[in-house]
Design goal:
With about 130 residues, the protein is mainly β. The chain has no helices and 11 strands. It has strands at about 5, 10-15, 20-25, 30-40, 45-50, 60, 70-75, 80-85, 90-100, 115, 120-125. The strands form 2 sheets. Strands 2, 4, 5, 6, 9, 10 and 11 form a 7-stranded mixed beta sheet that branches. Strands 1-3-8-7 form a 4-stranded antiparallel beta sheet, with no helix packed on it. The mean pLDDT is about 95.
Length: about 130
């Protein structure tokens, strides 16, 4: 069982930066692929970024590629999402998700592939 807790959300001006954290409980979290998703008001939840258990493999949606960076520190059981050059359209609730991959390098962009979810953190970008 893994429990996830997001933090770091808040209000930021367009063009600014924000770093989200996803802290996990559970001894085997380091073997889990992790992803970030977001959901804006009135819209479906969408994929943002994913990272393999080792951090070697990463994948981004086209809408954030080049602006956001996903990383992880397995010693701290934490995954990060560095958000730079944010835009008003980045406003959403951001969710962290994780799934076991048995130390494979697999990563996933579909929410249906993830077993565990956090409760989300609100990010609001003002223009």
């Amino acid at each position: 069982q893994v429990q996830l807790a997001e933090s770091g959300g808040g209000l930021v001006q367009a063009g600014g930066s924000l770093r989200l954290s996803c802290a996990a409980s559970g001894r085997t979290f380091s073997s889990y692929a992790t992803g970030w998703f977001r959901q804006a008001p009135g819209k479906e939840r969408e994929f943002v970024a994913a990272i393999s258990w080792s951090g070697v493999n990463t994948y981004y949606s086209d809408s954030v590629k080049g602006r956001f960076t996903i990383s992880r520190d397995n010693a701290k059981n934490t995954v990060y999402l560095q958000m730079n050059s944010v835009k008003p359209e980045d406003t959403a609730v951001y969710y962290c998700a994780a799934t076991s991959t048995n130390y494979s390098g697999l990563i996933y962009s579909s929410e249906y592939d993830y077993e565990y979810w956090g409760r989300g953190t609100q990010v609001t970008v003002s223009s």
